[in-house]
Specification:
Rossmann fold, binds guanosine-5'-diphosphate, 7 strands, alpha/beta, seven-stranded mixed sheet
Length: about 200
């Protein structure tokens, strides 16, 4: 299940513009600064593979990376910029929700949640929306290495994850799969790749 080859294929402006070769895909999405680029680079063991623009308001795009010539990792724009104007937020919703609802080859959405801080309302909202739409989702908790640095008041990653599950509980028919990760220690890297391999074999 290791990655031997990762090739940037295309930056698409919308769902209908995405590659049409039918390879299964796994989309990474999360709040800006959640650690998405770091995770993507850790997964493919490369620096600076992620190309998604970080500036809110710039043209948003769906970036396809072909892995081992057989499946895609897809980088979606981050959501929840504190400074983004409402129009940018609405655009993000339209853009990514269309992709989630209409992309036939999408196997699972990997929703990234920062485990080093309490979950934000917007994270709960997206997890809830994906669940309600019955879009297969995997929760990827990021920055799990930061727990040891938390002192007074700061909760450990495990507690933040537990709190997130409690908040989400009423919306789950069954809990989605979830993986604890760190791009610093590469915790969870093999688990994600194994999870993808298992989903591809269904
Ligand atoms: P993105 O905006 O979601 O692409 O986030 P980045 O990958 O650029 O990361 C945002 C910030 O969090 C950067 O300062 C990273 O160095 C830091 N970061 C990302 N992943 C981790 C992690 O696993 N552990 C720690 N401690 N910091 C991380």
């Amino acid at each position: 299940s290791q990655i031997s080859e990762a090739v940037f294929v295309k930056s698409s402006k919308g769902t209908e513009d995405c590659p049409s070769d039918g390879f299964p895909e796994f989309a990474l999405v999360g709040r800006s600064n959640v650690g998405k680029s770091s995770l993507l680079n850790s997964l493919v063991r490369r620096r600076k593979l992620a190309l998604t623009s970080k500036k809110p308001g710039k043209t948003q795009s769906i970036n396809h990376f072909l892995i081992n010539n057989s499946w895609y990792l897809v980088d979606l724009p981050g959501y929840g910029y504190a400074t983004a104007p409402q129009t940018v937020r609405t655009d993000w919703d339209d853009f990514t929700k269309d992709y989630f609802l209409n992309r036939k080859t999408l196997v699972s959405v990997f929703l990234l949640i920062d485990a080093s801080i309490p979950a934000k309302k917007i994270d709960i909202e997206y997890a809830t929306w994906l669940t309600q739409q019955q879009i297969p989702m995997t929760l990827i908790f990021t920055k799990c290495d930061k727990r040891k640095k938390q002192k007074n008041g700061g909760k450990r990653a495990e507690e933040n994850v537990e709190d997130f599950h409690v908040m989400m509980h009423e919306y789950f028919q069954e809990a989605p799969p979830w993986i604890m990760t760190s791009s610093v220690t590469n915790q969870g890297r093999d688990e994600i790749l194994l999870h993808i391999a298992q989903l591809r074999n269904y």
